[in-house]
Amino acid sequence: MKLSPREAEGYFAKPDADKTGLLIYGADAMRVALKRQQVLAALLGPQAEEEMRLTRMPGGDLRGDPALLLDAVKAVGFFPGPRAVFVEDATETAASAILAALEDWAPGDAQIIVTAGQLKPSSKIRKAFEGHPAAYAVGIYDDPPSRAEVERVLADSGMKNVPRDVMSAISELAVSLSPGDFAQTIEKLSLYKRGDSTDLTIEDIEACAPRSTEAALDDVLNVVAEGRAGEIGPLIRRLQAQGTNGVTLCIGAMRHFRTLYACASDPGGAAQGIGKLRPPVYGKRRDRILRQAQGWGAAKLQTALTVLTDTDLALRSAGQTAPAMALVERAMIRLAMLARSR
């Protein structure tokens, strides 16, 4: 049977121990692995490995020994409790062994859990699981995690006392990070808050979230918007060392100053305009953007956007001979000086 993404989320949390098996497939190996970990933990409990109730085997091993899977499924466990055989990274070369195990499966046998990469609808493995009355097939796609999924990850890590605005910030973090990085960030956050019963804050998230090239880019843009011209050069050198090019920096600056302009030009003032931003901003970043928008004003921000547009056109010009990063650095310094003007 084929499970929809919504049905799959509920099944991963509470799998049926009496079913024949489950196929999890998708292009993103990390997303597939995280779902497989979740379902095995829910199906077998935390002591499955120690009690030898879980058998692991690479899908490639089934090509040379097709009977390996069926023997493991039929084997009698020494410890009581549900059992499972996990076949990792299965391909079509393992199809005959998997189909034979599904056909010969009987109540009391170990459940068959299979993971695979992206499978076409014509895949024998996929068709076998989708057509089996007591087995499930789930496709994992690169969709952002749902609110329920984020809440489950937090609950699994023991995180409590999460206010609404902080939950929104965590949901945004889940969208911006890869599944593996997000899981590691939540684990780090749970260790950071261990023994601390106070509410989770935006500052806690900022302390644990990974610092990326984008974070370094934000540092440069904040320095420019706050008129600290002397700090621009070293920060741009650091970005350049990380592989950031002039066009990327210019695009990031235009995005930042458009955000400031959207706030400053709101008829109700910058404080009202910042509340209309999508995606919304929170915590210290919100305060900083509001302060910058109020300090610049709509008129000066129009001038700043003109400078950045001219710089972007110069960078893309066929006759451009000056180093791109030098052009961008000059524009950043002009903006920083403009921020200090009255």
From TrEMBL:
SUPFAM superfamilies: post-AAA+ oligomerization domain-like. It catalyses: DNA(n) + a 2'-deoxyribonucleoside 5'-triphosphate = DNA(n+1) + diphosphate. InterPro entries: DNA_pol3_clamp-load_cplx_C, DNA_polIII_delta, P-loop_NTPase. The keyword Ribosomal protein does not apply. Its EC number is 2.7.7.7. Keywords: DNA replication, DNA-directed DNA polymerase, Nucleotidyltransferase, Transferase. Belongs to the DNA polymerase HolA subunit family. This is DNA-directed DNA polymerase. It comes from Ruegeria atlantica. The lineage of its organism: Bacteria, Pseudomonadati, Pseudomonadota, Alphaproteobacteria, Rhodobacterales.
